[in-house]
Amino acid sequence: MLQFRKEISALLAALTGMETQEIESSLEVPPAPEMGQYAFPCFLLSRRLKKPPPAIAEELASKIEPGEYLERAENKGPYLNFFVRVPQLARRLLPEVITADENYGRLNRGEGKTVLVDFSAPNIAKPFGVGHLRSTVIGNALYRIYKALGYRVVGINHLGDWGTQFGKLIVAFRRWGEQAELEKDPVHYLYHLYVHFHQEAEKDPSLEEEARTQFRNLEKGDRDALELWKGFRSLSLEEFQRLYRFMGIEFDSYHGESFYNDRIEETIKLLQEKGLATESQGALVADLEPYGLPSCLLRKSDGAALYITRDLTAAIYRFETYGFAKLFYVVGAEQTLHFKQLFKILELLGLPWAGDCFHVPFGLIYFKDGRMSTREGKVIFLEEVLTRARELAFEIIKEKNPSLAHKEEVARKVGLGAVIFGDLINDRIKDVEFDWEKVLDFSGETAPYIQYSHARICSILRRGEESSQAFLRPDGTANAVAPEELPDTGLLSSLEEQELLITMARFQEAVIRSAEELRPSVLARYLVELARDFNKFYHNRPVLTAEGELKEARLLLISSVRIMLRNGLELLGVEAPEEM
Ligand code: ARG
Fold first, then answer.
1. Is any atom of ligand 1 closer than 6 Å to the C-beta of 507?
2. Which of 64, 260, 455, 493 lies at a CB distance of 3.0 to 4.6 Å from 313, suitable for a disulfide?
3. Full-prediction pTM beyond 0.70?
4. Where are the alpha helices (DSSP H) in 123-222?
5. Ligand 1: distance of its center to the CA of 125 in Å?
6. Using one digit for the tens of pLDDT, what is the confidence trace for 246-297?
């Protein structure tokens, strides 16, 4: 595994006495290759040593010894710039990539430690909001990335399948509902009933009371109410699962909120034992004011439990069931307070793992397309987004490549990829303005751009194979062969090749940083850069018309790029078609 960052950090740690970790996270990638491949800013050391940064950079530069991969270090102003020996790098990296092939990027950093990712979690009967789309996409990327890094990952869909909305639905369904309509299109239909209920309740407030009664019945285990609820739940779940399948997303558990119903009492008892639940007008409250947080309701006076009570119960259940090292909640930033309260209560309960729970928040998406922005601009139906993505991609593909076979299938991958990547490329905490034109731009910072670069390489490789390269299979994929049979990578010495190789050497680092910083955008941005470097190379250097061994070396180079683009996209939940 190539990790210059590690190597350089170790060198610097020995010279400066700084922590390797600290150095690693402060290393930067210089803006131009003439400045080397890594830069160490000396400002922090300057403050500590009370010496000007350029003096420190100069002193360090004189002490750095070249190594197997490190050619030299040069000081430039306040920076210490590192130069890598590119030929050595190529000799080691390229065979490694084509040998590992679909496993390239997989590591055993996690050593089987368990990580739980709580993501997607739509609410049955309420619309699948934009927040759920973002959670689905970000959570799935983190799920895949952690898995690739050797963790045992459990994906949990904490379905919103319990709560007062079911009282409303039961009332609405009994009054105005039709089973056949429900079965035809459950997600839309339940939402329609839900909206209708609110309209009617404005005219006739007694409906609200009726809904509360129905929810109480449900909580008490009333058979008819439960029967209806079960139907709503399973029909909606089927529909969601169809969409998840379409997106290539899987969950290991669908234990939603309702699953915890018969464990709630135990949680309440525990809270009371620890003196964390105080009675207030018949309700139970956790007083969090001493910790600078608003207090929260744990149980209403009518006995109904709340979202947070179910989350407390779920966290405890999860630890008992999986013994996680980390639990990530991929949920919108608007629930930050909820998670602060949740984690605080877990901590006050004295649970040693409370500190291993993390909220992974994200901002909102605004759809620029009027068709997608319903009431308040927050409500979308996932299905509409996916259908529209496929249609738009189909149009573009039909125009760009009329003779392409399997256009439908390619359009699915490209449209879906555009939506997923269009989300992931953004820093997750920021609000995103979702613009169809932008996410489908074949030359922008998009999935289609990367997919197109990948397909382009596949096409070159298919043609390259005709001139019978030992390491290429008939379908253009690379064949694992002994390193001595591989073309001489030392021939890859042009500026474009060097730049490309150096970017390639950062693949693994991008995957690791995405996981550690819980930011799939790191990997997404990296892939754009890799595709750009490839295109720049290909624009300036011929592959198929290059001479002899140089041609072979270049074919080897691009088959490695192909593997990285494909594997990288896959980690983000995006497929890479071989033709498009
Ligand atoms: N269903 C919730 C909502 O839509 C999200 C659940 C997130 N997970 C959790 N354990 N609270 O707001």
1. no
2. 260
3. yes
4. 130-148, 165-176, 179-184, 186-203, 206-220
5. 14
6. 999 999 999 999 999 999 999 999 999 999 999 999 999 999 999 999 999 9
